């Protein structure tokens, strides 16, 4: 089953980030993320730590702009409902603003493949040559990039996010798929 993976939170080149990024005082950003504990089960302490790190990284730098006449910053509540990842968007004062449901089927196989490559990566760092480790790492990063692009496309027209935010959200989605 999937285990911890060295998910790259940002782009390989921070200067290559697209989108507005996050500047001090930017209102198009997330300031809080909570997970619906009724639908997203708690797991062992190591996995809970990974979840906390993924959320922390996402909150440190993000661009999040729901479509509509909404003013941020925003709180986000994630839950799972009928095989969908649900984004419940609230104002900073926790007033409900919008709800976006994203089917998980488009990401499920990719997440599985991503964890398979992560397992190969952890095995390789124990015994493989640096060139073999680098090749596996490039594959892992490629899958992570693909996942974040799929996420951006699925959210298009509903929530605008930049590449780094998509990468961090994909990391969080991966962590939510860890069994333990």
Q: Class by helix and strand content?
A: alpha+beta
Write the H/E string, N to C: EHEEEEHHEH
Q: What is the molecular shape?
A: globular
Number of H- or I-type helical stretches: 4
Strand content: 15-25%
Largest sheet: 4 strands, mixed
Task: Describe the protein's architecture and organization.
The protein is of the alpha+beta class and 180 residues long. It has one domain (14-177). Helices cover 44% and strands 20% of the residues. It has helices at 45-60, 105-127, 130-155, 163-177, and strands at residues 30-35, 64-66, 74-81, 84-91, 96-103, 159-161. The strands form 2 sheets. The chain has a 4-stranded mixed beta sheet. Strands 2-6 form a two-stranded antiparallel ribbon. β4 and β5 form a beta hairpin. The protein is globular and about 55 Å long. The termini are close together. Residues 8-24 have low confidence and may be disordered.
In short:
Helix 1 (45-60) packs antiparallel against helix 4 and helix 2 (105-127) packs antiparallel against helix 3 (130-155). The protein has helices at 45-60, 105-127, 130-155, 163-177, and strands at 30-35, 64-66, 74-81, 84-91, 96-103, 159-161. It is built from 4 helices and 6 strands; from the N terminus they run βαββββααβα.
